Amino acid sequence: MPGRYRSSDVQYTQRVNAAVELVRSGTPTAQAARMLAERFGVSVRQARRYLADAAMAGHHHVEVPEESVVFTVKLPASLAAQVRIQARQSGVTISALVASALAEALPASVSWPEGGSERK
């Protein structure tokens, strides 16, 4: 369908959270669907899906995922092969596997030396 696209994870989460707020405020479903459709430029049918997802979340906000960026590294061929095999066997993407491994290996927060900054 021309002009139609799938929303990003961030957009989806923001829309479900907006639906949570409308449900919490006691807005009737039909009215909430129309409000969401107008606010986000989606169909009323899609807005009803966001309301249903808000109900599935127990009317609690859904965490907005952090935006991903491309990060290229060079690895030995054997290590890259192991990563691909592990990702395939685990049923996850290579990006998800590597992100999980790095998150586990790195400290929760990184402080840059005074006057220093992240290299770009």
Which helices and strands occur, and which strands form pairs?
Blueprint (H helix, E strand, L loop, with lengths): L8 H16 L4 H12 L3 H13 L20 H14 L3 H12 L15
Helix pairs in contact: 1-2, 1-3, 2-3, 4-5
Report on the architecture of this protein.
The protein has 120 residues and is mainly α. The protein has helices at residues 9-24, 29-40, 44-56, 77-90, 94-105. It is elongated and about 55 Å long. The model has no long low-confidence stretch (mean pLDDT 86).
Outline:
The chain is mainly α and 120 residues long.
Compute the gyration radius: what is it? 20 Å
Number of helices: 5
What fraction of the residues are assigned to beta strands by DSSP?
under 5%
Instruction: Give the biggest sheet.
Output: none
The proportion of residues forming helix, as a percent range, comes to 55-70%
Structural class: mainly alpha
Order of SSEs: HHHHH
Features:
about 120 residues; 5 helices; elongated
